[in-house]
Specification:
Layout: E1 20-26, E2 35-40, E3 52-57, H1 59-75, E4 78-84, E5 88-94, H2 110-127, E6 145-148, H3 152-172
Antiparallel strand pairs: 1-5, 1-6, 2-3, 4-5
Helix pairs in contact: 1-2
Length: 181
């Protein structure tokens, strides 16, 4: 009996070796093991809209952050904007500007870079597996979400989404009331 073929989430006939991407990587079963978010009220204001969210990385979250920088160096990609949320990571990924015809080594794809990132984090986690937030077991969901960034406006919207993600988390989890604006 043959197993069903998994359908690719990537566009066919698209070159994922160049360009810019908004990437989301999720932990397995949405386990909140990468960071903690708290909402702090601004002591000079009484309305909840003027507070701020505080994000504190766990041991595993720090591994994720350090590994992002390792991936930038190893694959010559740029990750200028990212956020490590409790159960997922958002990032902007710029693939290297490489002349594909004259490249002297294989040019990575988005999938190979993200696959390597997830693998590198998993290996580092196994080295310090005794920490509370570094339990064994599958760390990541099998795939990842990507959005091809088409222009500067799209890039700005995705960067803003990343920056505002902690406050959206606070609203979603009842740490702060949403405002009307």
């Amino acid at each position: 009996m043959s197993l069903p073929q998994r359908k690719s989430q990537r566009l066919s006939n698209f070159d994922y070796r160049r360009g810019a991407y908004f990437i989301t990587i999720c932990t397995k079963n949405a386990r909140p093991i990468l960071s903690e978010i708290r909402y702090a009220q601004n002591p000079n204001r009484r309305d909840s809209a003027c507070g701020f969210s505080m994000l504190k990385l766990t041991v595993l979250g720090k591994i994720c952050e350090n590994t992002l920088h390792e991936v930038e160096h190893k694959y010559q990609v740029r990750i200028p904007t990212y956020i490590i949320m409790p159960n997922h990571i958002h990032m902007i990924l710029f693939m290297p500007e490489t002349n594909l015809r004259t490249a002297t080594r294989a040019v990575p794809t988005v999938s190979s870079v993200i696959g390597a990132y997830k693998s590198m984090v998993t290996v580092q986690r196994s080295k310090i597996g005794s920490a509370r937030d570094c339990r064994t077991g599958t760390l990541w969901e099998r795939s990842f979400y990507d959005h091809i960034i088409r222009d500067d406006e799209d890039l700005y919207c995705k960067q803003r989404y990343i920056e505002e993600n902690p406050i959206r988390w606070c609203i979603k989890h009842g740490l702060v009331e949403p405002t009307s604006d």
